[in-house]
Amino acid sequence: MIRNSLSRALRTSAAVALTVFAVGAASSASAEALRDDWCKDVHIRFFVGGAEGDGFGTIVYNGAKQAQHDTGAQVDFVFSGWQSEKMVQQLREAVASAPDGIAMMGHPGPASIEPLAEDAAKSGILMMYQNVDVPTVRAKFGGGYIGANLEPQGRALGAEAVRMSGIGAGDKAIVVADWAQENRVIRELGTVAALEEAGVEVIKLTTTPEMAGDPNLAIPVISAGLLANPDVKLIAYPGGQMLGNAPTYMESVDKKPGDIFNIGFDTSPQIVDAFEKGWVQLTSDQQPFLQGYLPILSLCQQKVYGLGAMNVDTGAGFVNGDNYGTVADLAKEGLR
């Protein structure tokens, strides 16, 4: 019996020793696998979308810069002023320069992007897309998408606005967008659908890409729309730049905070200030920081580690007059 007990003890000790050795070896291997600047040899072209310094584009850019810092990747930043034609030309130039990867805004739509995505695939250039999806292009030539799921996001915003504001049958609302950009206005069409399903009469006002960069350019369009429809109860804006400028639009037609229910997308220092002063009531946060950070991270992981492309819905829910304080400080830093 003593011999059997000793034998069992020896076997147990040996097993423990092997386990300790295995854990130690795994820990050592894990330590060796950790790398600084692990993506330093990867060259990426990153499309910010807007012009340098614009509200939304700045948050995207800050996310991309953080990813560049964390991965060590070589990143060239491309600014387009939200102009689809310019993006297409810049994408053509990006493919010709043969980087390892391109992170592209999907605003120009599949018809414009597809032939260039095909050229990129033939050249072995990895593609990621952010902010506006091009699923048919990705299905043919690969790539992931980082951004909000646009139609559901727009529809959810409209439904939440109906719930919060009490707007309903017989009331009027204005929805502002660049309606010529079919791929881009999927989100705003979702908002229109939700409002119309509640019986609201929707008036569409048309903007231009330039107004996204300088929202003051939209003052004549919005003021004219309000003067022609003085009984409008709600306005939905297409992006953070214009939503942050809501106080200016309201003051241009002598409206006071709360006279009109102002809604839209994103957060920014201007939007936080508008919440504080009662000009803005609701926004849908799509976390543009992630739209900058994750495409670069994914391209690095694909190129260095052979991982698959990321697909992430960055829609984070609603910010309103009750909870805006939770993101206020980060918004003022250009991170939310």
From TrEMBL:
Domain Periplasmic binding protein, first and last residues per copy: 48-300
Stretch forming the signal peptide: 1-31
Domain of life the protein comes from: Bacteria
Keywords: Signal, Sugar transport, Transport
A family per Pfam: Peripla_BP_4
GO molecular function, one term: carbohydrate binding
Main localization (coarse): periplasm
Keyword Ribosomal protein applies: no
Subcellular location: Periplasm
Gene3D superfamilies referenced in this protein's UniProt entry, alphabetically: 3.40.50.2300
Family matches, as InterPro entries: Bact_Solute-Bind_Prot2 (IPR050555), Peripla_BP_I (IPR028082), SBP_2_dom (IPR025997)
Record's GO cellular component terms: outer membrane-bounded periplasmic space
Keyword Transport: yes
Homology family: Belongs to the bacterial solute-binding protein 2 family.
Protein name: Simple sugar transport system substrate-binding protein
Organism the protein comes from: Bauldia litoralis
